[in-house]
Amino acid sequence: MTVEEQVKEIVSKIAHIDKSIISREATFKEMKADSLDVVQALVAVEEKFDIEIPDEEAQKFRNFGDFVDFVAREAAKKKG
Amino acid sequence: MSQSSAQVRVAVDAMGGDFAPGEIVKGAVMAARQGDVAVTLVGQQDAMAAALRSEGAPPDLLECVHAPDVIREGEAPALAIRHKRLSSIVVGTKLVKDGKADAFVSAGSSGAVAAAAATYLGMLQGMERPTIGGGFSSFAPNIVIMDLGANVDCKSHQLLSFAIAGTVYSRTVYGIARPSVGLLSTGSEEGKGNEAVKEAYGLLKKSGLNFIGNIEGNDILAGKANVVVCDGFVGNVILKFYESIGDHARVWLLGKYPSVKRLVGWAFDRVLPIRKLSYEGEEEGSGLLWGVNGVVRIAHGACKAEHIVHGINAARKAVQVDIVGNLRRELELYRAQGIL
User: Fold this and answer.
1) What is the total count of domains within chain B?
2) Partner residues linked to B63 by β-bridges
3) Prediction pTM value
4) Multiple choice CATH, A3-79, 1.10.1660.10, 1.10.1200.10, 3.40.30.10, 1.10.3720.10
5) Cβ distance B102 to B295 under 8 Å?
6) How does pLDDT run across B66-91, given as a tens digit for each residue?
């Protein structure tokens, strides 16, 4: 499973969103995820990949693709 | 006080509530002195130490965990738990998550407590959002209303999950074998209500729950349904209106019938427990947060020490009867039938 697929799985489960509507271009608002969904997803992803997503970075995510790219970069750094 | 293996461990948010930390610490000390529960206070070290000193509590009576941040009422809950990861609410919730406490009690921001519980403890499968349930014990002792304020906007399937949680509540707390479930609406007919309520009616009808249809506001205190299902916006408005009735009725009667002032005072103080409407019984002053994977009780912001004692004891009982496991098993049954 790719990082994108894993993150999609987490977001889909937490926000009860059909995976088919989660695209790289979609914003959380467009996916009808509320602020608690987003926070829950951030924490779940941090735990899954054992990374930290600083709030200032999270605020820069324009869409799901930005979120996935950040997670992929941090996960790769973690692996070394 | 040394902890015995049988003791339930309850973490208490020392910083939450209108009278924190004083009343909260006082209640925690009273509960710890009972000896049947191990209490851990969570909050700012200096504030907790000062409050413990003023209670004359010996240093080994209870444990303290330092949490430097405080989430204030009015802060956006989801953002607050993210920005204030060292707040008493987040630290206390994580004690449960990490297995260092069996339950968490807080009189802090209800939204933040619910958000922290959903985020760090996770939701039981079948529950999307936490819900707060409670009853109006004076007039209608065997009813539970869900939700009382955790979710202001609800989707139809969330209302269904509240009905299931309310059914488990009614069975576990009131011992009612097959609780009746009423959907609060603006009329008893199936087509009444907003879109979420109308959709929920259909879901509840085929749920296998003991659904009796829509009920109206005047049916609540009549006890027409054991479980009253509504969104948290409606539930919270009802709760606060109800809580205010006693004091206003007393003032109104005294103004209307000044010649029987003593009788009115006597009636309200001795006969009618109306001023304590929703604070009676073991549920006094706090409610269980349903749907999260752990025992969390949210106390009324204006609670005093005795309410904290009740909250801690009720949390202990919830752990001992495995109330979370009961709900998990019930939800699994509905999920297996494809209802959730």
Assistant:
1) 2
2) B40
3) 0.84
4) 1.10.1200.10
5) yes
6) 999 999 988 999 999 999 999 999 99
